């Protein structure tokens, strides 16, 4: 996407506004998700939580998220907290209450992790169901891909005609 954006931007500078530049749709609060050890998430660091892992694997990964040793009643910081960064993604309904309990004390990391596990399971369950349905209906998947390919080819054909006209090849 970045290469396409750079190419479109360069073309627009030379030939005028031709292409709409793609804009990212990334929520800044969750733009970078830390790995379960607090470092950058990476499969090579082995610090990821795979979306389609089993419930037991998710539980094991979440329970291994690195936390400090603060007691339940001690206030905790939400900013730069690896565990809380996952709550920003998966616990949106409970965020105000979790934030309050973090800042005022009254929540331990074990309870916080258990809440996160349940929220992740709830988030992932419909994705798993959809994945299973798609695995069972490969013809539908292929039809959607072919349809998308046709639309993309038509769009590309129109864009290339416009480009050829603008640069004087037609």
Automatic annotation (TrEMBL):
Cellular component terms (Gene Ontology): cytosol
One Pfam family in the UniProt entry: tRNA-synt_1b
InterPro entries per record: aa-tRNA-synth_Ic, Rossmann-like_a/b/a_fold, Trp-tRNA_synthetase
UniProt keyword Nucleotide-binding, yes or no: yes
Keyword field: Aminoacyl-tRNA synthetase, ATP-binding, Ligase, Nucleotide-binding, Protein biosynthesis
Record GO biological process: tryptophanyl-tRNA aminoacylation
Gene3D superfamilies: HUPs, Tyrosyl-Transfer RNA Synthetase
Domain of life where this protein originates: Bacteria
GO MF term list: ATP binding; tryptophan-tRNA ligase activity
EC id: 6.1.1.2
Class of this enzyme: ligase
Catalytic activity: tRNA(Trp) + L-tryptophan + ATP = L-tryptophyl-tRNA(Trp) + AMP + diphosphate + H(+)
SUPFAM superfamilies: Nucleotidylyl transferase
Claim: Methyltransferase is one of the keywords in the record: no
Family: Belongs to the class-I aminoacyl-tRNA synthetase family.
Protein name, per record: tryptophan--tRNA ligase
Native organism: Candidatus Falkowbacteria bacterium CG10_big_fil_rev_8_21_14_0_10_37_6
